[in-house]
TrEMBL record:
Pfam families: RadC, UPF0758_N
PROSITE patterns tied to this protein: MPN, UPF0758
GO molecular function, one term: metal ion binding
UniProt protein name: DNA repair protein RadC
Length: 243
């Protein structure tokens, strides 16, 4: 009793429910996007376009608002939700859940594509700008390597291993096997910390030194090891951890 109701979140959930297709054209998300551009739409309206339809007496916009609420109105949090979590919301089935996850993955890949577009990466900090959006939504640790030629031109990047919440096992043979196949002269290492901490563990530092020493045998320079999390990034070169 006496509970406050957020009217903004109650669009089209009353008995006088009106489908989005019956709204004034200028208020319909698709028409609004066409006439005014993406910047005129809220996150919920953009998500409603992806959902395409709602559920029973719930419009696509209302369902989109509920999904965003479940993600604390944070798109980064939305990107971390999996199919099972999304399906807990009434009105979200496999099709809608998969559509949302695919859209979030495309957004990540678009950000990640900036690394390959740039072609040349001279500093670990530049690589961090690529890896942070790519790895920030991982709920487990993952280890990536960027392979470069002697001019620091990007040849390829690859996820070497996926682990658990606190660690992942990295096989140096896999890293250098691919480096030799690509004729790479330089490597950039990166992994994430789902906990949010940016501090390298003793294992992180030990692995980095091991890989740097191994690289010398093949005349391959391990340039830096980057750790990324929600808090930002940590560069072993910038922090003087890598010797």
């Amino acid at each position: 009793m006496g509970e406050e109701v957020n009217l903004d979140m109650c669009v089209n959930v009353n008995p006088l429910y009106v489908s989005i297709r019956d709204w004034a054209p200028d208020d319909q998300p698709r028409e609004k996007l066409i006439k005014k551009g993406t910047g005129a739409l809220s996150d919920a309206e953009l998500l409603a376009i992806l959902l395409n339809n709602g559920h029973k007496q719930k419009s696509a916009l209302t369902l989109a608002q509920e999904i965003l609420q479940a993600a604390r109105n944070n798109l980064n949090e939305l990107g971390r939700l999996n199919v099972r979590q999304l399906k807990k919301l009434k009105g979200v089935g496999n099709a809608k859940a998969v559509t949302i996850i695919a859209a979030m993955e495309l957004a990540r890949r678009r950000q990640a594509g900036s690394l390959l577009e740039k072609k040349v990466i001279c500093r670990g900090a530049d690589a961090a700008l690529f890896f942070k959006p790519l790895l920030s939504d991982y709920a487990h640790e993952a280890f990536f390597v960027v392979y470069l030629n002697h001019n620091c031109r990007v040849l390829h990047y690859r996820c070497i291993s996926n682990g658990g919440m606190c660690s992942t096992i990295v096989d140096p043979k896999l890293i250098f096997k691919e480096a030799l196949e690509l004729s790479a002269s330089r490597l950039l290492l990166c992994h994430n910390h789902p906990s949010g901490s940016l501090s390298p563990s003793f294992a992180d530092i030990g692995l980095t030194r091991k890989l740097k020493e191994a690289g010398k045998l093949f005349d391959i320079d391990v340039m830096d090891h980057i750790i990324v999390s929600e808090a930002g990034y940590y560069s072993m070169v910038e922090e003087g951890t890598m010797v």
